[in-house]
Amino acid sequence: MHPAMEVLSASRRALVAALALTLTACPKAPSQTDGRDNPVGEPSGRPRVEVKSDATADAALAQARAESQANPDKKKAAEAYLAVRKAYPATTAGQDALYNAGVLFFEAKDYANARKTFNELIFENPLYDQAEDAKHKMALSAMEVGAYRDAYQTLTSLAERAEGAQKDQLLKEAARAAEGAGLYSQALSTAVKEAGDAQTPEDKAAAVAKVEKLVEGRADFLDVARAQEGLSPSNPAWPVLQFKLARIYYHLRDWTRLEETLQRFLRDAPDSSFAPQAKELLARATRRVEVRPRTVAVLLPMTGRYQPIGEAVLRGVKLGLQGSDIELVVKDTQGDVNKTGQAMEQLAFDDGAIAALGPLLVDDTKRAALLAEELQVPLLTLSRQEGITDIGPYVFRNMLTNSAQARAIADYAMNVKGYKKFAVLYPNIPYGVELANEFWDEVVARGGAVRGAEAYTHDQTTFTSEAKRLVGRYYLEDRGDYAEAVRDVQGENITDAYRRRKAMEKARSGVDPIIDFEGLFIPDDWRRVSLVTPALAVEDIVTNACDPRDLERIRKTTGKKELKTVTLFGTNQWSSPKGRSGLPELLERGGKFVTCSVYVDGFFVDSQRPATQKFVKSYRDAYKEGGRDPGLLEAIGYDSARMVRQVLDKQRPNTRAAMREAMAGLKDFDGATGRTSFNDKREADKQLFLLSVDNKGVNEINVDKEKAAVRGSGS
C-alpha cells in the first residue's frame, strides 16, 4: 500500500475506533448530587442556622403577608418580606419570609433576585418544607439569566426523585437547560427518552422534532452514537439517529459500516420518512465500485468568468478522443469549489467514470484531488499548483509548472550556455516571487550564483531605478570611482554654475556599469518585458549581441572594444500573439532589445517535433471556422486525453485501481507537449520548449543538438 493511503486509512480507522470505544466504554455522566440528595453546585449539609419559632416574628410575617396581598407591586411586596427576614433571621418566620420573597420575585420575572433569594434559603436550610419548590424555581430562574449548567444540574437532580407528569416536565426543562449550556449529549439523551415516553402523537412528533434539531449541527457524531447505543427501534427517535449515523459513515467514507447501518435502518424502519433517502444512499454507496471502463470525465469551468480557458482545454480533449468509443462526461465546475466537489462525487457515484481529467484552477484542484483520493478515482489534474500530487497516489498532473520552467531555464543557461552568474528582475507578485525563488534555488543547486535581484510593482511602467541598481549606478556615493571623479571636478575649481553642473553630470555618466552577471532572468508578462528591456539598454546592459555583426556595431557606437553581454531569460508568459507585421508582439514592441533572449514554454505551435506538428495540423483541420491556432491549454487537453485513451486501449483496465496502476506506469508518451513519462510523484516529466528570439521571430532551440556540440567541443 502507498504510504499516503496508509495515512488516510489510519485516520479513518482511528475515527472508527474512537467511535467504537465510545460506544462500549463511555463513562456515565457523573452523579448530579453530592450524596445527600443535593445537586452539585448547590448548598448541602445541615442547616447553617438553628431556627426557632418566635411569636413576634410570626406576627411580623402575618403583617407582611397582609401587605403583600394588598400591594399589586410584587417587587415591593417582596421587599416587605425581606424586611421581616432581616429583622428575624434565625426564626421560622424569617425563613418563610425568605421563601415568599423568592416566589414574588419569580412571579415578577425578577429572576436574578429570585435566584439569589432561593439560593440563600436552600443554603441556610436544605431541609426547608418548600425546598423542592424553591429549588425548582431557583433552577428556572438560573435558566432565565443564562446560568444553564446550574439549572441543568438542579433540574436533573429533581427529576430523579419525581414521578409521573412532574418528572416529564422536569426532564423537558432539563433538556432545554442542557441545550442552552451546550451539553448536547445530555440534551439529546433527554430528548430521546422524552420521545420514548410520549403518549400522544403530538407529543411524539414534538419530541422527534427536538431530536432532529439536536442531531443537525449541534450534537456531534459521538453524541449521536451514545444516544443510539442500545436504543430500541420502537423508540420514535430511532430512525432519526440511525439515519444520522449512516450519513456520518458516508462522510467518513466508511463504506462497510455505512452499508450495515443503512441495511438495518431499512429493515427496522421501512416506513420512515427517511427511507427513500436511505435507499438512495445505499444505492449510491453500492455504485461506488461500479465502473464503466470506457467512461472518462472532465472537470472544467464551462460557464462563468473562466469559461474561455475551459473551452480551450475541452477542444483539445475532444480532439484527443476523436474516433474513439470512449464516452466523455463533461462536468461544469463554474470555477466554484463546492460545485467541483459535487462534480467529483457525481462522476464517481453516478457516472461510473474510470478516471477524470482536470480541474484547472488552484482551489478547485485541491478539492477535486482530496475527493479523488477519498473515492479512489484516478485524477489527471491540469493545474499549475505545486505539490498537488502529494495528496495521494490517485492524483496525477500534466501541466507546465513554475518549478519546471525554472529548472529548464537554469539547466539550459548553465549546462548548455555555460553561464555561472545571474541576476533576477521580477514583479513583486506571487507569480514573480515564486519563479524568482525557484530559479535562484536551481542556480545555487548547480553551483552557480545570483549576483543581484531587484523587484518592481506589478503596474510599473518605467524601470530606470531598477536597472541602475542592478549595475551599481544608483547609489553612486558608495563607489570609489565616482568619488574620485567628483574630487577631480572640485579640483578644477569651476566657478560657473552651468559648467559645474555639466561636469558633475559627466562624472555620473562616466561611471561604468558593474555587470557581474551573464544572464538576467525576468519572470513576467511579455508586455512588461517590452518596457523593461529598453531601460536595461540605457544602463549599458547589452542584451542583443548574439549576432557578431550586431556586436561589432555596438563596439563602434560605444567606442568600447570589450563588451560584457547579458542574455535575457524568461518564462512562458513571454509568449505573445502575432501583431500586424506577422511577428510576435513581444518583438514588435521590444524591438532589438529583446532579440537574443531565450524563454521557456510548454508548447510551441511552430515546433518541428513530429508529434507537435501532427497535433497542430489536426487542430487546424478540426477547428477551421475558429481560425485560431492552438495554445498550451489545447495541447495539454489533447495530450491528457490521449494518455488516458492509450491506457484504456492498450491495457483495458476494468477497475479504478487498475487504471491508476496503468497510468503510473506510463512512459515515453509522444505528445504535442513533448515526450512524457510520469515520475514517482506522478508528475509529468517532459522536455520543455526552449525558444530564442531574433529579428525574424521566435525559433525553437534544439537543446539536444546544442548539448552535443558542447560535449564535442570539450567545454
From TrEMBL:
Keyword Signal part of the UniProt annotation: yes
InterPro entries registered for this protein in UniProt: BCAA_transport, Leu-bd, Peripla_BP_I, TPR-like_helical_dom_sf, TPR_rpt
Coiled-coil region: none
Residue segments, region Disordered: 27-51
Superkingdom to which the source organism belongs: Bacteria
CDD domains assigned: PBP1_YraM_LppC_lipoprotein-like
Transport as UniProt keyword: no
Keywords of this entry: Signal, TPR repeat
First and last residues of every TPR repeat: 95-128
All copies of domain Leucine-binding protein, residue ranges: 295-470, 587-697
Biased composition (Basic and acidic residues): 34-51
Record family assignment: Belongs to the leucine-binding protein family.
Protein name as annotated: Penicillin-binding protein activator
Species of the source: Corallococcus llansteffanensis
